[in-house]
Fold these 2 entries.
Entry 1:
Amino acid sequence: MNIREKQEEYEREYLSPYATHSVDSKGRDVNEEECDVRTVFQRDRDRILHCKSFRRLKGKTQVFLDPTGDHYRTRLTHTLEVSQIARSITRALRLNEDLTEAIALGHDIGHTPFGHAGERTLNRVCSLGFTHYEQGVRVVEVLEKDGKGLNLTKEVRDGMLNHKTSGHPSTMEGKVVRLSDKIAYINHDIDDAIRAGIFDESRIPKDITDVLGHSTKSRLNTLINNIIHESEDRNDICMSQDVHDAMMDLRKYMFDNLYTNPIAKSEEIKADKMIAELYEYYMEHVTELPEKYLRFMEERQEAKERVVCDYIAGMTDTYCINKFSEIFIPIAWKG
């Protein structure tokens, strides 16, 4: 029995009856020889962690566009916080931590530059539509490794696709990530908003803080522990009604006071204009796309609109700004 098989045996003996076992995975689109050391979900986690799209998350906006301080979250640090929260819940419930981690690390891999602002712009200008969760699956199925994709298991892709609020993950681990995403962004975005002077802790409504707590630390503790206690020995990931309602009220408060705040979001109109202009430019000058994307159209018969979205969505904030400047901003004559 090799190391992988020992780990699979450990899962059978130790994990909850509601956990997803590696040996029972629905598999990959392309069959591969099994690894002697790692389970299928461990391999998926490693593939995501080492891919280029994951590394680029460090240069993509979470909430604040190109913040001057060093401590504001990026899309990468958000992803790591989601992973940490999800793994804590998963371990306590004896679910499959490797599957949870793979889904968490990949859940935002399809995000655009400038966060949800860029996502809204591409969805508006592209006739085929655009969402970051569908793009994430496209990244790992098609775009990574020069068009070969990462060949991830169906369970990981399902969790990535369904991490949105209205999603319905097919595994318990996917359900954990879906809730952990909300817990992470609500709480760390409050932390960033306080750091930015948008509001302070005292302005959060008392009926919310009385349930969840009066600090980021206490709110995280309340939410994580509530999920664990409410989900123990159940075939679902649950929260008590009072805690769930308070979390959703806090989410609404954040939308009203941060996510649509004119101070925090004052630069988004510029990002929207920039991405829209880049999209129109490449639609008219498609041959200026990198060779890889031209191959997607020629060999895979991909639609031009989709491939232009692929290129722009993969950009970091800085690369997007530089590309816009290169195309649209005149350069001083050096005669």
Note: The two ends are 72 Å apart (CA to CA).
Entry 2:
Amino acid sequence: MLMAQPGRRPFAHTLHCVAALLALPGAALLAGCPNHKTEDPIKVVLPHEKEQGASPTPADIEKGARVEGQLSWYTSLPDKDAKAFLDAFRKKYPFIDAHVRRSSTFDTISQVKDEIDTGEVKADVVHVLDVGVFIELRGRGELMRYASPEESAIDDRFREPGYWWAMRLVAIGMAYNTKTLPADRAPKTWEDLLKPEFQGKIGFKDASTAGSAYAEYFLLRERLGTLFWERVARQKPQIFRSADDVTAALLDGRILVAGEMAGYAMIGAREEGKPIVGVFPKEGVPFIPGPVAILARAPHPNAARLFVDYALSREGQTLFRDLGNAYSARKDVAPLRGQPSLSELDLRTPTGGWEEYLQKQSALRTEFEKLFRPTSD
């Protein structure tokens, strides 16, 4: 059984190491991502990553998980989807007392980093909509190395073998309420958000807390320029903390357009009978993988391995697709019903790779705050 690792250097010190690594030529090959080869020519071997003999067998993993008997999963998934998925995992492995801690992407990341820095790691498995944090944690040596038997089924573009794998793929568009906005007046392009009739009536999730919102801000900034967001800010949009809050504002008329809505939220609203229609603009659809990984200091590493194997399995990915209305990175899982296939969308991913996406995160989240909350510190 893999034992928990001893304490490591503080986070602030390690960031300098990560920054130096990312500055090296070819550093874009540190992690698997769209438009990226899965080879890892720059091998960072930290003390705890040295070979520890043969990999544990499935029988060893299950035996170890039975002894551990617990699992803690940190995620940014919508609460009901996370709980339903965990219920299915518990049913498959009833000897594991599994728990979920659900929060927004960046709140979850902050919690994980705090636990690492204090040496009191409680999380075993992490899943959020932010590739950057997995690249960062990988560089710090804070991800467990595990060759999941399911990883070969995951599209090469959406994994770093042995460290993290996309648990879901999310396409981001807009949405409107058919009862308050006729289809002929609804926005069809991102530029349509600048129409005078939508002033004060656009809603966005907060890019300071939500991974999908930051993805949209970053990727449309690359595609349409900073000026686009400056003009959107002059429309005085309303900023919300969650997708549920944006949906509620659409339904009660506080906003006419959701300027950011993930594909899974569009389908969920429709399945619940809500009069919400999603739009994927033809000039580009922001697209973000949501990885899953095991922390190197996971208190229950064997239970964590079982969870990752289940999450990446065909059974788990099919369930996840159906529960969370997400695209799967697994090659043998059929696409979503009622959604365009990924090949039909002009998917936008970082031109400079996910490392650049990570490097610019702090500055661009601050930029978002200044644009949309001009009175904030």
Note: The longest strand covers residues 164-177.
